[in-house]
Design brief:
By secondary structure, this protein is mainly alpha-helical. It is 51% helix and 9% strand. Helix 3 runs parallel beside helix 5 (82-88).
Length: 190
Amino acid sequence: MSIAYPPAGALAALRDMARADPARAADPPRAVPVPLGPPPSPLECGLIARQIARVLAQARPADGTLDLLLAWPQAAWLRRELAAMVAYRDPARRLDELQLAVDDPQPGYHIHHIVERTPAARDGFPRSLIHRRDNLVRIPAYRHEEITAWYATVSPLHGHRSPRDYLRGRSWAERTELGLAALRAHRVLK
C-alpha cells in the first residue's frame, strides 16, 4: 500500500505553478507513490527519494513541505536521503562557486570531474590534468548521478552514440566544453 506525494490538491497547485513558469512547464511535477513503510531494497529507497526530490525541485514548495513528509512516521526511511534531497533543490551556480565548494565537502553532494575521469585516463590524459583543481566541482549527488547516466545515453546529437563514446579520442578542450554543457543542462551551472 502507498500514498501519493504530493497529495492531489497540492499536485494541482504545483502544476499551476509549473504552467506559470515556462522553465518548469516542460516537465510538470507528478505524484510519486510513497510506500507506507520502507521499500524492500536500498535501491528502491533511493529511486523513490530521487523522484520526490525532483518534484520538490520543480515546484520549489516552502521548505516546510519536506519537513512534513519527513515527520510522517511511515516515511522515516527517507531521512537517510534527506541531505541529497535538499541538495537537489540547489539553484544553478557560477563555475567558480562550484569549484570553491570542493574544499567544503557536505552530505548530499559529490565531487564531480568536469572532464570524466576514467575515459580521459583511458585516452592517455595525465592524472595531473584529470585531477587538476579547475576540473573539479562540488555538485548535488542526485544531479551527479543524472549527469553520469547522461554520459552513457545514446543521443542523435552525438552521432547516435553516447556522449562518452563521442568524446573518445577528442581533445581536452572538447571534453571540457561538453562537460560544462552537461552541468548547464542539468541545472548545476549558470
